[in-house]
Amino acid sequence: MPVVNPAGPATGPAEPGGTAESAVLEALALLGPGPAEVRPAPAAAVHRAAAWPEARRTAALAGATDPAAPARAPLAKALGRVLAAPLSALTDLPSFDTSAMDGWAVAGPGPWTVQDGGQVLAGGARTVPLADGEAVRIATGARVPADTTAVIRSEHARTDAKGRLYADRAVLTGQDIRPRGQECRSGDRLLPAGTPVTPAVLGLAAAAGYDELEVLPRPRVEILVLGDELLAEGLPHEGLIRDALGPMIGPWLAALGAETVATRRLGDDADALHRAVTRSTADLVVTTGGTASGPVDHVHPVLARTGAELLVDGVAVRPGHPMLLARLGPGRHLVGLPGNPLAAVSGLLTLAEPLLRVRAGLAPRPRYTLPVREEVQGHPHDTRLVPVTLHAEYAVPLRYHGPAMLRGIAAADALAVVPPHGARAGQELEVLELPWAAGGCFT
C-alpha cells in the first residue's frame, strides 16, 4: 500500500467500497489530528513515547497493511462481517405484482361479481385474469391476477344477498398493490461495499436472492496472558490474584469484529512466550503484562529475538503508558497490553481497536465531544482516559479509575479523553464509546 500522509488535503469522506487508501484516509480523519507523517520506526529508532493520537493513527495504518482477501460465506455465517463487494439485486423486488392486504382483487368499477374458484393465496398457482366487473378473494403476498384494478381490504368491502361485492369507500386504481420492482429492479445497487452485515442486511440479501455473501474475514486474534501470579479460578490468596483480563479481552475483541482463536496463560516464561509468538498463525497476537522493563518483563526481548518491527513503544497516555505495537510479519501484528486491568483497557482502545476495525473493514466510530459535568484532574504531560457515564447533555466522570481498577470501567459508557493539565467543569472533551454502549455485538 502506498504511504499515506494523514495530514494531506481532505476531499470529503470516503465512499464505502472505495479504495483501501481512501478508507484508511477516512479512518485517520476520524482518529483526529496527527503528525505531518506517521511512519513506523524500527525498534532501535524509538526513543520516546508516542503521543496518544499518533499512536492510534499508527495502529490504523498497521491494520491497512497486507489486507486479507475477501471470501464467500453462507448467510448463516456472514453476520457481523463486512461486505467486500456491493450488494446488487439479483431480481426485481417484488418479482411480481402482489397484494399488500387481505381482501379482494377487483377489476373495473363496482359492484363486482365474485369469481368462482375460491381465493388467491400466497405461493399459489398462477391465477385466472379478472374480467371487468369481477372480484376474487386474495391473501397478503399473493400474486395479483392479471388486469386487476385494485385490492380492497376485507374491512372496507361487503357482499349482498346475491353475492355481489360492494366497496364501502372510494376505490383508487392500484391501491394496496405492491407493483413488481417497487423496491428495486434487477441490477440495482442495494448496499455498498463496506456495509456491516446486520440481521436486516441478511434479510435484504435473502429477499434479493442471495444464498451467500462476499465478505471480509474476521481478523483472527490469539490472546497470551502472562504472569505467574495469576489464578484462573477461586479467591485471591497468598500473593496470587485472579486473572481479570483473560475473561475480558476475548469478548471485547469480538465486539470489534475479531475472532478469538485462543486465550492461553503462559506465566512469566520468556521461552514459552517466544514459542507462542513465533508459532501463532493469528493475524493479531495480544499479550497482557510484561511490556515494561522489570526482571520478568519479557515482551521486548522476545520481539527483538524474533526480529519484529516495533511500531509503537510506549504511549503518552495514563493509564497504559507501557503499551506497544509491533509488526511480526506480513499481515501479522502484536499488541502488548500492560498488566493492570484499566491500563489494558486503555491499550485496547488506543492500539487494538483502530487496527482491528480497519482490518475488519469496519468504519471508525464517529468522533464527538460532550462537556464534562465536573472538573477532571489531568496528568502534567500525558493524555488521560477517564471512565464516564453519558447523559443527554454531559459526561459524568466516575470514581475508581486507578490503573489496577475495573470498577469504574464496568459502570462506564465511554472513556473521556482528558488533555494534559486536566479539564474544567463544562469543558468539551472527546469521548470514546465502549463497544457495547455503541451497539457492538459479542458474536
Task: Describe the structure using short key phrases.
alpha/beta, elongated, seven-stranded mixed β-sheet, disordered N terminus, 443 residues, 28 strands, six-stranded mixed β-sheet
Secondary structure blueprint with pairings:
Blueprint: H1 20-31, E1 50-51, H2 52-64, E2 71-74, H3 75-78, E3 82-83, E4 87-88, E5 98-99, E6 103-106, E7 112-120, E8 134-138, E9 150-153, E10 157-159, E11 164-167, E12 177-178, E13 189-191, H4 199-207, E14 212-216, E15 220-225, E16 230-231, E17 241-242, H5 245-254, E18 259-265, H6 270-279, E19 284-288, H7 299-306, E20 309-313, E21 315-318, E22 324-329, E23 332-337, H8 341-360, E24 369-371, E25 383-390, E26 395-397, H9 407-410, E27 414-418, E28 428-433
Parallel strand pairs: 1-21, 7-8, 15-18, 15-19, 16-17, 19-23, 21-25
Antiparallel strand pairs: 2-14, 3-14, 4-13, 5-12, 6-8, 6-9, 7-11, 10-11, 20-22, 22-23, 24-28, 25-26, 25-27, 27-28
Quick gist of this model?
The chain contains nine helices and 28 strands. It is of the alpha/beta class.
Account of the 3D structure:
By secondary structure, the chain is α/β, with parallel strands linked by helices. Helices cover 20% and strands 27% of the residues. The chain is built from nine helices and 28 strands. Strands 1, 21, 24, 25, 26, 27 and 28 form a seven-stranded mixed β-sheet that branches. Helix 6 (270-279) crosses helix 7 (299-306). The longest helix has 20 residues, at 341-360. Residues 1-21 and 34-46 have low confidence and may be disordered.
